[in-house]
Design goal:
- The protein has nine helices and nine strands.
- The chain has helices spanning about 5-20, 55-70, 105-115, 130-135, 150-165, 210-220, 225-235, 245-265, 270-285; strands at about 25-30, 35-40, 45-50, 85, 90-95, 175, 185-190, 195, 205.
Length: about 290
Amino acid sequence: MALTEEAAHEALGAACEKVGLDSSGAELIRLGSNAVFRLVTPVIVRITRDAAAVDEVATQVAVARWLASKDYPANRALDVDQPVNVSGHVATFWESVAEDERYAPIADVARVIRDLHKLDAPAELHLPDKRPFDELQERMSTLDNLDRADADFLRCRIGDLRSRYESLEFALKPGVIHGDANVGNVILDRAGNPVLIDLDSFSIGPREWDLVQTALFYERFGWHTEDEYRKFVDVYGFDVMSWAGYSVLADYREVSMTLWLCGKAGQDAGAADEVRKRVEAIRNGGDRRDWAPF
């Protein structure tokens, strides 16, 4: 079912009514994979595109409640009966961390990830195993938005990465991972404390997945300074760039970021230009420091 702004507002009103919240005056913060609203009260409401995601969303709520029981600094699910299925969409309710979005210092990012990796998830959470190439497969249809040469190149690149990945020997003990850990998903609350957000990709897998983006942002994109990266390594206690498999995960992340953007390329000329630039850089080993955020 399409998630238009009108449909999102309709689902918001119905969901809030079911849990006894007032949706009047709600602000639409984002309309993408989910619609995200901020209520007048300090509550964030997320609306999915369709009801098929109900099991995944229920797991996110369960993860949040488990982390809260461990006093771990992450998104807190509101104490209501949720998720809520309305109008073909699924709504979840979250405590608002802050009125603005301020990213945490890199030392806090490392500490939050390190402390997460010390936790053992209970079996009743039923966290999925990390299956990175299943995630890419779900996006392969977006290659139809590219010209044939670029699409064929990315398909070959993904096949090569799969072969390289299957031969990796990981250095760290596997366990619970965030799955998309980076500075953009650790924000400061009203008191200035770091909070891990976006619990969508929690799974069981190699801990290196939660370290590679910080390294990639430093080494290839220049989004972190060398001092920031060294601080991250010192606090976490392991340098993923010293591991022989780092380039495989870094290459995967580049392709994943590009494949995600392919989904926008059919309707957005700027996104299409950015995808072409990224594919050219990956194909020829060009500079990634001019990759634009989307």
